[in-house]
Write a structure and sequence with these properties.
Keywords: Ribonucleoprotein, Ribosomal protein. With 108 residues, the chain is an alpha+beta fold. The protein has five helices and four strands, in the order E-H-H-E-E-H-H-E-H. The protein is 37% helix and 29% strand.
Length: 108
């Protein structure tokens, strides 16, 4: 699994408006329905109201490549321009699970 954290930052609530339009337009749901998509969820950092975090997880690089080749990427680019958003990206590859000694810190 590959997880990509995308931080969208704008001014005057633009990032939040972008995420709201992604959801309201159905574009986010279309991405969630793509083969290989495991997670596509928006969050807002409490300390930064001008940023929206997208956590986007895929089964593998091939799924990401297929996603990047879809017409939806053009729609996304237009919305990013509309809201004048800038991005910061972090990428993570799944490790093989939570070590036993770390499980003591997890409350279920």
């Amino acid at each position: 699994m590959i997880t990509v954290n995308l931080y969208y930052t704008g001014k005057n609530g633009a990032a939040q408006k972008f995420a709201q339009e992604m959801e309201a337009s159905g574009l986010a749901d279309k991405i969630r329905a793509e083969e290989g998509n495991l997670k596509y969820d928006y969050f807002q950092p409490l300390a930064d109201p001008e940023t929206i975090l997208l956590i986007d997880s895929w089964t593998d690089q091939a799924a990401i490549d297929r996603h990047h080749a879809t017409p939806m990427m053009g729609e996304l680019a237009k919305l990013r321009e509309k809201y004048d958003l800038h991005m910061r990206v972090e990428r993570y590859v799944e490790d093989k699970g939570l070590p036993e000694k770390d499980k003591a810190f997890i409350r279920k």
